[in-house]
Structures are given as structure tokens and as C-alpha cells.
TrEMBL record:
This is Cytochrome P450. It holds the Pfam family p450. InterPro entries: Cyt_P450, Cyt_P450_B, Cyt_P450_CS, Cyt_P450_sf. SUPFAM superfamilies: Cytochrome P450 (SSF48264). The keyword Oxidoreductase applies. It comes from the Bacteria. Belongs to the cytochrome P450 family. It comes from Gloeobacter kilaueensis (strain ATCC BAA-2537 / CCAP 1431/1 / ULC 316 / JS1).
């Protein structure tokens, strides 16, 4: 695997075009060992069938304590006590705790709240576009980020004056497998985030309103959630509740602007928006890799031995470009059917916010194409700035004009 060992898979340079690397892995070494930015070793699984199987395989744990031996746990990086409650979340738990937490989170998403999301997302899109003062703007900073942040903040009951803070805090929390230096630099943001969440929860306990945090506080009062689980759930909903949607809007519009035939086709045939969203999720997956999975026992994937306790990551972006599953996998086709992509995962950990991301992405793209039919890129592809990180793939900024 000449020259592959030096690839930095969380770097902005790699994020710009990871697909040739993944294609080579699928062809030559479909289960490949890498060192993550924090020096932790991990296995990358890159073929569609193997990734789909991994995401549903009960031999893998999400909570490392359910897989690692005491000796292995002793060598793992320790989470600072202040942030330990954030690990008590849906993403890092196994059944029966995961099933309980997921059920409680789902009950908070009532039909009434979903109806509010539709109206608020459309209003947020129109409001952001109405603010544009010139014909050139940053699609990420002025639209793709603030719209989902506004919607999830309103859904959860975050006061309007506090919403701009979440872009900074969420960006910090999404930096998976941070190096010691990045962890040190991020510490103040994380401290502020945790303290803010505790104040917000305390406020909702005293003065509950018709919002998601108040609903979860009421669930906690029944004894179905403890204090740490409540904090972790609110943190996850605030961050994951907009990160995927932001990347779907940004990556999706970039793909359409790079393939103007598909842009014009969707503008001429708006009824294709449903299949277009699915194709954009496949073609430029906002979630590049699955979150952590740890082998509970010695096993094999595609003939490669994996030892108990080892970390395995399913590369969703690679699976979604696998030629064995998708004909002309590297071609953007907004009418593609069937389209069994893995953008939101599989199995019990299938993304809780998938429907929300699809809904917001659909409204955002429809609004952009309707109101800005002449939207175009104003920067070269090789000048695009991608965010550093492991699990997510998204842009720092995207210069456009209309």
C-alpha cells in the first residue's frame, strides 16, 4: 500500500477528495488499519456489504466498556470528569440503555413539533435569503449553518440570544479523535457548553415551556432518565440536530453546482426533489464514517482478523460509492432508483434525526433553487476549505453568487 500509510484521514486536504483513496482500499485492502489523529489504531471497513453488515453486527459494542478488557481499558484515554456525563448518550450506548434512551427521545418528537419544523424551516430559509445584501455570499456561513441551528434551537427551546454560540461549540464537539493539543485548545468551549446546558435544563425545570428540553425534563422527573443522561441527550440533539443537515445542504449544493446539468434538471423538474435528496446523501455523504464500534470478541471481516477490543469504523462515504452496489457510482443522478445508501446508518443505531435532516434539506434546496435560479460557484474547486474531523465531512465556507 505504497504512499497510503501517510494519508491523514481527518485533514482538510484529505476531505477535499477522499474517493480515490477509498476506491483503492475497496479494490486492494477492504479492511485497512490506520492510526487516527490521536494515534489510536483503528480498522477502516470500506466495501458496501461489509459496512452494512458491521452497522448491524451485535458482535460490536458502541460502549467500549462492553468490549474491552480491564487491561485494555486502562490504556484508553481518560475523559475529564467535567465532560464524562456527555458520554452517556445514544451514540455511545448499547442495549438495553440504548433502546430506552432512543425510545424516550422519539416520544419527544410529536406530530405537532414536526409540523412546526416544516413552517419554521421555510421561514428560516426565506429570512436568511432576505438578508442577503449583495449578489455574492458564503452559502455555509449565511445559510447552510444558521438555518438548521435556528430550527433545532427553536425546537429545543434555546433562547434566540444564545443561538449563535452553538456554531462554535458544535464545531468543537464534532472534532472526533482530537489530538492532545486540539483538546487543550477546545477545553474552554466545552466548559462553556456544559455549563450552559446545565443552566438551560435548570431553567426548564423551573419554568417548563412547549419545547423539547422541557419535554425531556418532564421525562426525567418520572425517573426514566438520570441527570447525566438528560444532559447528554440535550447536548447530542443540539449538535447532531444541525450538523448533518448543515453538511447535507452545503455538500448537496456543491455537488449540484459542480454538475450544472443536474442543477438545471432539478430546477426544471422540482418533483424530483425526493430522489435528489437521496442521491446527494449518497454522492457527497455528510457523515463520512460511522461512529466508534469495538469488537466484543476475536472475529474476521472480509478475511481480516480483528482482535477483541479493537476499534472499527465503517466508511459510509466509501460504501456509498461502491460500484458493486451502485451502477455508475461516481456519477451524480438525481433520479437514481433504487438508492439504498447508508448515509444514515443501519440497524438499531440508525440516525434518529434522519427524517428531520431530509425534511430540512428538502425545504432548503427547494428554496435555493426557486429563489436563486442563477446560483453559481465563485471559487475554484481546489480552493474550497473543508472542515477537519473524522466522522463528518463538510465545508468551512462556500463562495457563491446569483
Amino acid at each position: 500500500m505504497s504512499r497510503l500509510e501517510s494519508v491523514q484521514i481527518a485533514s482538510p486536504a484529505f476531505k477535499a477528495d477522499p474517493y480515490p483513496f477509498y476506491a483503492r482500499l475497496r479494490a486492494e485492502t477492504p479492511v485497512y488499519r490506520v492510526a487516527l489523529p490521536n494515534k489510536q489504531p483503528a480498522w477502516l471497513v470500506t466495501r458496501y456489504d461489509d459496512v452494512a453488515a458491521l452497522l448491524k453486527d451485535p458482535r460490536f459494542a458502541k460502549d467500549r466498556q462492553n468490549a474491552l478488557t480491564k487491561k485494555q481499558m486502562a490504556s484508553q484515554p481518560q475523559v475529564p470528569a467535567l465532560f464524562a456525563p456527555l458520554t452517556r448518550n445514544l451514540l455511545d450506548s448499547d442495549d438495553p440503555d440504548h433502546a430506552r434512551l432512543r425510545r424516550l427521545a422519539q416520544t419527544a418528537f410529536t406530530a405537532k413539533r414536526i409540523e412546526v419544523i416544516v413552517d419554521r424551516t421555510q421561514a428560516a430559509c426565506d429570512e436568511r435569503l432576505d438578508r442577503l445584501k449583495g449578489r455574492r455570499f458564503d452559502l455555509m456561513g449565511e445559510f447552510a449553518l444558521p438555518v438548521p441551528v435556528m430550527v433545532i434551537s427553536e425546537l429545543l427551546g434555546v433562547p434566540q440570544a444564545d443561538r449563535e454560540k452553538f456554531g462554535r461549540w458544535s464545531k468543537t464537539l464534532s472534532q472526533n479523535t482530537m489530538t492532545p493539543m486540539r483538546m487543550l485548545l477546545s477545553f474552554p468551549h466545552l466548559v462553556c457548553f456544559v455549563r450552559y446546558l446545565r443552566r438551560l435544563i435548570a431553567q426548564k425545570q423551573k419554568q417548563p415551556q412547549d419545547d423539547l428540553v422541557s419535554a425531556l425534563v418532564q421525562v426525567q422527573a418520572t425517573g426514566q432518565l438520570d441527570e447525566d443522561e438528560l444532559l447528554a441527550m440535550v447536548a447530542l440533539l443540539l449538535t447532531a440536530g444541525h450538523e448533518t443537515t448543515t453538511n447535507l445542504i452545503g455538500n448537496g449544493m456543491l455537488a449540484l453546482l459542480r454538475h450544472l446539468d443536474q442543477f438545471e434538471r432539478l430546477r426544471a423538474q422540482p418533483e424530483l426533489i425526493e430522489t435528489a435528496i437521496e442521491e446527494l446523501l449518497r454522492f457527497e455523504s455528510p457523515v463520512e464514517m460511522s461512529t466508534n464500534r469495538y469488537a466484543r470478541e476475536d472475529l474476521e471481516i472480509a478475511g481480516t482478523p480483528i482482535a477483541r477490543g479493537e476499534l472499527v469504523l465503517g466508511v459510509i462515504a466509501s460504501a456509498n460509492r461502491d460500484e458493486s452496489q451502485f451502477p455508475d457510482a461516481h456519477t451524480l443522478d438525481i433520479a437514481r432508483r433504487p438508492n439504498l445508501h447508508l448515509a444514515f446508518g443501519q440497524g438499531g443505531h440508525y440516525c434518529l434525526g434522519a427524517a428531520l435532516a431530509r425534511l430540512e434539506g428538502k425545504i432548503a434546496l427547494e428554496t435555493l433553487l426557486r429563489r436563486l435560479p442563477n446560483l453559481r460557484l465563485t471559487q475554484a474547486t481546489n480552493s474550497l476549505r473543508w472542515r477537519r474531523g473524522l466522522v463528518l465531512r463538510g465545508l468551512e465556507s462556500l463562495a457563491v453568487s446569483f
